[in-house]
Specification:
Low-confidence stretches: none
Mean pLDDT: 78
Shape: rod-shaped
Number of strands: 4
Order of helices and strands: HEEEE
Structural class: alpha+beta
Length: 157
């Protein structure tokens, strides 16, 4: 008597098609996650660069002599948009010269700062309070974002 022979048959076309469909459906489910992750990376990169631009201007102002005319009380605005490196954008086709933080802005960042004279309560110490704001227009969320760095300069005794 011969033993019964088992045939190994493999998978049918329907089984393979269903498996491929499930894998495709699962992979397509990951696409929104990738898009959201990319937007988060872009947003955090912009925040880091804006903070660096604000801190560099604040450092420039804080290291000036207290009596410098550049530290006069008032509000100031950068004359042009700033690129990611802080260098003004040139109106050579990559920038038209519009600056600010609105949807018509063609550059990456706009930087402004305010300087206020402050009387410190203890003693007769005068100081200057400096707030540097860097803002940008986010094309993805269609909204303005900003970063503020603050510091001060005290009159030497």
């Amino acid at each position: 008597m011969r033993p019964a022979r088992r045939r190994s048959r493999g998978h049918t076309l329907i089984e393979v098609s269903i498996a491929a469909g499930l894998l495709t459906f699962g992979a397509l489910g990951l696409v929104p996650l990738l898009v959201t992750g990319n937007q988060g990376l872009t947003s955090s990169s912009m925040i880091i660069q804006a903070t660096a631009l604000a801190d560099s201007k604040l450092t420039e102002l804080v290291t000036m002599d207290y009596a410098s005319t550049a530290l006069a009380a008032g509000s100031y605005t950068e004359a042009t948009n700033l690129s990611l490196t802080g260098v003004p954008l040139n109106p050579d086709g990559t920038a038209t010269g519009a600056y600010g933080c609105g949807s018509s802005s063609d550059g990456r960042f706009a930087r402004s700062w305010t300087i206020a004279d402050v009387q410190v309560p203890t003693g007769s110490l005068n100081a200057k309070e400096i707030a540097v704001t860097v803002c940008w227009w986010d094309k993805i969320s269609k909204s303005t974002h900003s970063v503020v760095s603050t510091g001060g300069v005290a009159r030497p005794r």
